[in-house]
Design brief:
- Its EC number is 2.1.1.72.
- The chain is α+β, with helices and mostly antiparallel strands.
- It has one domain (2-79).
- The protein has two helices and four strands.
- A four-stranded mixed sheet has the order 1-3-2-4, with helices on one face.
Length: 109
Amino acid sequence: MHCLQNLKEGGRMALVLPEGFLFRKDTAAVRQFLLSKAKLQLVISLPQGTFLPYIKTSILYFIDAHKPNNQKEYWFYEVKNIGVTLDNKKRKIIGINDLNRRGWKIKFI
């Protein structure tokens, strides 16, 4: 896969994919390939409507690219509220947001 070819050893990547990718039989070979090349650290399941055309999506976050991996567990987060309406207008919803900025910190080196 192109995304892995451009990563340095030990690098990190995030993929935004349709949630069906996680469960469908026809994507099993691609899942196995990804898991053999990098450590899956977490999956974030987003609500349907986060992205157009309203397909339920997930974010897969990988670390330690190109290192041997025999991992059996990873973090899974199901996000129900993204702080905006899930229609095409994306109006802010005050006070309801599972993606609170103070709760998520990523340190980029």
